[in-house]
Amino acid sequence: MSEPIVVEIPHKLGLAAARARVDGGIGKLAGMFPGGAAVDHRWEGDTMFFTVAALGQRVASKLTVAEASVRAEVDLPPFLALFADKIRAKLAKEAPKMLE
Fold this sequence. Notes:
- The chain is of the alpha+beta class.
- The chain has helices spanning 15-24, 26-30, 84-98; strands at 5-10, 37-44, 47-54, 57-65, 69-75.
């Protein structure tokens, strides 16, 4: 398995507001993967674990919400690792908009 994509997204919302925005933006996150659609998500404390179905693959991901940042970790299966740079760039560009 390839190294996970990790992106730190700074914000000034505070923990509760950032968590609410992340929870409401799960559909937007799925759209950052080629052919992606959210399959499921669950919270454990301040970490949201979610799975995205993309191009027939399942992508396990998690977002850890903190007071001043959100840490996104995406574990790509080997087939989708070909798209790692594009997914990383899109996540870094689009995810902060979810927290505005």
